Amino acid sequence: MSTAALRVVPVQTSGDLRRFVDLPWRLYAGDPCWVPPLKKQVRGALDKKHPFYADGAADREIFLAWRGTRVAGRIAAITNRAHNAYHNDKWGFFGFFECEDDPEAAAALVEAAAAWVKARGCDTLVGPMSPSTNYEAGLLVHGFDTPPSVMMTYNPPRYAELLEAMGLVKAKDLFAYASPVHPKSLERLEKFADRTRRREPDLFIRSVNLKEFSNEVQIIREIYNRAWEKNWGFIPVSEAEFAWLAKDLKPLVDPPLLRIGFIANEPAGFLLAIPDANPALAALNGSMANPIRLLRAMLIGRRRVGLRLITMGVKPPASDHLLRCPSAARVLT
Predict the structure, then answer these.
(1) Do the bridges between strand 6-10 and strand 58-67 make them parallel or antiparallel, or are there none, so unpaired?
(2) Are 147 and 201 members of one domain?
(3) What angle do CA 34, 27, 105 make, to 5 degrees?
């Protein structure tokens, strides 16, 4: 670790914002499991014009840790007023955390984030949230030997140690499950789905209609906000923010993989799976501006290597098995 003086300062210039966004490319150099994000999307999530921050619902400050003339780490401090109003608490959040193997720099970054949210009335610091549970959330603590699926977090093993050394403790376990698809499993699932459809004649499930995408998004948003209302960390997603999220996901949407369920013609549940775009994303190396990388990514993207089940939900009082099983069968067959 360098002995150069350490300082943590807010990002105030376009040059420092570029350094903030670009830092992971140096920290993860040579790591075969890291998938570079699109820099445009990172900047978008930090831009206060993003609907996440609209109407004072949230605010943020981003910091760089400097060791002399070298950037050693970064962090975002986030206040989410919508979260605190919904859950009646005083949480502040941190996200976009990246750091060299430098405990002093990591501590200084967390302290800066904690001080910033405390000054705005928060009594607890929670993270990583980049910037909320509707985006990348959590810290990877197991599974460092495989690349993440699309929209899944990834970080070096040392991050848990750096953050726990600051006194941070686990708030919640977040699990990701990987499973191969076996033909016999699909047969059993389809049989169960058929029985469910016969037992529930008012149940109707269809694929999303991309020609009516805006209307479909509103249907899914209404289901999502009802289905997830009691989940840990959830806050209702505004119409503008949900539209923003949907716009980002639309290029990855394959209609048979986005299913909406109705009971007596009333929206009741949905399931969204998307092809795992991370192999193609890795080829882009953070930008779609390079035509050679773009062509390579398009060729890689034609080879479907797996699916990621992004989210699903069933509105109360519909039971989970009523819609999940038929939807999953239709997606996978």
Answers:
(1) antiparallel
(2) no
(3) 130
- Give the phi and the psi of residue 15 in degrees, each rounded to 5: -65, -40
In 3D space, the residue among 323, 152, 313, 310 whose CA is nearest the CA of residue 229 turns out to be: 313
User: Assign residue 303 a region: left if phi > 0, alpha if psi is -120 to 50, beta otherwise?
Assistant: beta
Domain count along the chain: 2
Collect all residues with Cβ–Cβ distance below 8 Å to 282 and sequence separation of at least 6: 35, 36, 147
Q: Is 258 helix (H, G, I), strand (E, B) or coil?
A: strand
248 and 280 within one domain: yes
User: Residue 255 is encoded by which pair of tokens?
Assistant: 């209609």
Residue 316 binned pLDDT confidence (cut-offs 50, 70, 90): confident
- Domain containing residue 44: CATH number: 3.40.630
pLDDT at residue 274, as a whole number: 87
pLDDT, residue 271, reads 92
Read out DSSP for 14-63? HHHHHHHHHHHHHHTTT-TT--PPPHHHHHHHH-TTSGGGGGGSEEEEEE
Does one domain contain both 189 and 144? Answer: no
What residues contact 312, with CB distance under 8 A and at least 6 apart? 269, 270, 271, 272, 324, 327
| Exposed/middle/buried for residue 178 (C-beta within 10 Å: 0-12, 13-18, 19+) | exposed
Q: What is residue 326's predicted lDDT score, i.e. its pLDDT?
A: 56
Domain stops at, among 164, 192, 213: 164
Q: Is residue 178 included in any domain, yes or no? A: no
| Euclidean distance between CA atoms 84 and 80, whole angstroms | 7
Same domain, 135 and 214: no
d(CA 14, CA 11): 8
- 171, part of any domain: no
Has residue 170 been placed in a domain? no
Domain extent, residue 15, equals: 6-164
Q: Among the three residues 164, 196, 230, which one is the final residue of a domain in this structure?
A: 164
Residue 139 and residue 40 in one domain: yes
Quickly tell me which residue has 């040579």 as its tokens.
30
